[in-house]
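Action item from last week, closing it out:
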Amino acid sequence: TNTLVAVSQMSLLVIFATLYLLILSPTAFAIAVIFMGLAITIYLSRLKVVNSAMKNATGAELTLHELLMGIIDGFKETRLNALRAAQISNDILAASLEAGDARMTAQSELTRNYIFMQNVFFLLIATVIFIVPDVTDIELQAIAKMTTAILFVASAIAGVVSSVQTIVNANTSAKTILHLRRCLGLPRRISCQNSAPTLLPASFKRIDAHGLTFRYGGEASTAFSVGPFNFSLHAGEILLISGGNGSGKSTFMRLLTSLYWPTDGFIAVDGQRVTQANVERYRALFATVFSEYHLFRRLYGVDLAAQQEGAALMHLFEMDDKTAIVDGAFHDVALSTAQRRRLALIVALLEQRPICVLDEWAVDQDPLFRRKFYEQLLPLFRARGLTVVAVSHDDHYFDVANRRFHMEEGKIVAELRKSPS
């Protein structure tokens, strides 16, 4: 608002100064009007280039912002998948470079326009001083008055020209806000170079937890803690975790996947202890859909060969009529919570990790698909050799699991077993 008021005041000053030229010399006024008319026409033509450059810069910055928010919201997903993290890093680097180049181009165009108008201003002064006296019989005293008038409004003209940048930025931002859904729904995708894939563990037979404990709030005896956990997870089994709210189920899952480093105890894979040196390799065992997850539009961390299975999984999860995988990305992710969870699980399966960790995945699904998940999908995953660890409150379907841990107050209070079918 302040900028618009200032521009209006300066524009009025320029108009009245131009009318003063008309009083002093109609010929000088006509020359000035023609001169300025041509200059403004050229300036507006150049302004289209500026607007286009500003639009490109804003779009590039929105893409960069989307990627950065994805890193923040999808921290768990990127921490557990080194390939996904590397690809996103490449995207962020490419997007930041493009945003920087686009912003520099826009600023350069604005500067060129500013310099152009400054040159026009000086040419106008030269015309009044050197050309007008030759084509008219105007007195030198009038020439001095006209020159003084032009110099008097110099700062006003410079102010009007320099405010164009602010107005263009505001105009671009306003258009972005008015078309926010469209702009966010169709961002310009950034292609990244393929990173060298991280070597994933081929398989595992058994994961053992020995005295695994995690304590919130430091070492105080009053701090809430989970554990100690002593259990084994066998390849190819379905393990369900049950328990009330606040019983420590989500913390258990984060300890299992090593997103939380244990306060005490350790995890071993086939007898080999997980340490800070090899924890990345251990995390590469897991594909996850936590209760608080982030669904990336692009299939980060999924190689091209695995993406070929995407269509079949979309049909299996009854999502092929809602969206599609196109060029390694979901066409649309503006779906319901339950549908987005299905897409997140599809991505987890496409990662082809040996262990799939699901934190209350079925809670938002409708009753029919919930039944399909427990009675058809989980047995199918097991038949394919996938190990599933899932938090569940659906006691009607507990018998689908090989084992179930029931948790209370941060401890496993019961372990129920079932022989594999």
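Closing note: Residues 82-135 form the longest helix (54 residues).
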